[in-house]
Amino acid sequence: MKFCTDCGNKLEDDAKFCTECGNKMPGALPETARAGRDEIIPVVTFELSGKIERAKPKSRKGPVIAVVFVIIVLLAAAAVVAGNLYFDLDFFPFNLFPAKTMTAAELLDLGEKYLLDLNYEQAIVHFEKLIEIEPMNPRGYTGAAEAYAALGRVDEAVAVLKRGLEILPDNKRIKTILDTLQ
């Protein structure tokens, strides 16, 4: 009975390789073997030393990071273009497509719509723009005041109504709402 010199496994006496670790036993293969009558073919033998290590795959982090970065840049560009095309957003640092100038009637309609939808912030934006382009329209002042008051910003509602009274001192509707708020 013999034992493997590498792992210590018990082997048959005529074993040429260890059945456990595959280690070659001394004298297992000759240096040459006869293939035919006079033809000699060298026999290639080799031994594995140490542990077999699995080849580590190359890191793909670089290309993945580059692709993610490109996607983020494209999405940001798309958001800027979409914002400029479809919305009148003033917070973009640049404007690729200048917003269409709205008429006083369009601003009034949108302000009223946002008031009815309880979207008071947008109502204020549109009524304030209406006041800028048509300061003689009392509904701009009263609409903005209603939206401010609905948000609990009574001081701003009073301020808007006072601005309206400076321009339209005889307007009874503005006076009535101002008296109600004070």
Descriptive account of the structure:
This protein is mostly helical and 182 residues long. The chain folds into 3 domains: 1-47, no CATH class; 62-100, no CATH class; 104-181, Serine Threonine Protein Phosphatase 5, Tetratricopeptide repeat (Alpha Horseshoe). The chain contains 6 helices and 4 strands. A two-stranded antiparallel sheet has the order 1-2. A two-stranded antiparallel ribbon has the order 3-4. Helix 2 runs antiparallel to helix 3 and helix 5 runs antiparallel to helix 6. The radius of gyration is 44 Å and the shape is rod-shaped. The model is unreliable at 28-36 (pLDDT under 50).
In terms of topology, how is this protein built?
Blueprint: E1 2-3, E2 10-11, E3 32-34, E4 40-42, H1 61-86, H2 104-116, H3 120-133, H4 138-150, H5 154-167, H6 172-181
Which strand order spans the largest sheet, edge to edge or round the barrel?
Answer: 1-2
Radius of gyration: 44 Å
Q: What is the number of helical segments per DSSP (H or I, 4+ residues)?
A: 6
Which of globular, elongated, flat, extended, rod-shaped describes the shape? rod-shaped
Our estimate of the beta-strand percent is 5-15%
CATH class of the largest domain: Mainly Alpha
Major beta-sheet overview:
2 strands, antiparallel
Question: What's the CATH H-level homologous superfamily of the largest domain?
Answer: Tetratricopeptide repeat domain
Order of helices and strands: EEEEHHHHHH
Roughly what percent helix?
40-55%
* CATH T-level topology of the largest domain: Serine Threonine Protein Phosphatase 5, Tetratricopeptide repeat
Number of domains: 3
Termini gap:
111 Å
Q: Which residue ranges are poorly predicted, with pLDDT under 50 across at least 5 consecutive positions?
A: 28-36
Query: What is the level-2 CATH architecture name of the largest domain?
Result: Alpha Horseshoe
Secondary structure: number of strands: 4
